[in-house]
Write a structure and sequence with these properties.
The protein is built from five helices and seven strands, in the order ααβαβαββαβββ. It is of the alpha/beta class.
Amino acid sequence: MPKVFLLTLLGCAAAAAQTGDAEKLAPYYPTPETIVEKMLQLGGLKAGEKVYDLGSGDGRIVIMAAQKFHADAVGVELDKDLWKLSTDKIRKLHLEKNARIVNGDLLKQNYSSADLITVYLLPGFIDKVQPMLDEQLKKGARVVAHDFEFKNWTPEKVENIADDGEGRSHTLYLYRK
């Protein structure tokens, strides 16, 4: 991962914490559509499965999971503006039956019904999420992490993407409970 990109993400996280927004677990940085699809493919998402996107931003993972993979997709987003933006997109696309966004703290949700979890969180924040997922996820549930790995888990598969078309590389990690 380019050093400049990582420094930008870390700077955004520091700024969020300084503005009193400490419960935010990651700055908003949208995942390119090509990477969204690769995350869902790597996670082996099938029609009818339950997927949660932790820190769902503009809803792009939730929308693609519902639209292209026919999954039951739920995003969790703390930021009210992003929650409204993604909820409006879902409504406009008539995906309300299979897609929704919860406006809330991702650390206060129940993920026991998840077949797949997607995350794009910074390492320190992954450390906060990991114990909760250890406790809640059912046997066979999968987790796909974008760029930052879960340090206490062993990935089943690691996929390196040299260039996303926007000039940067990505690493995806697949974990299975």
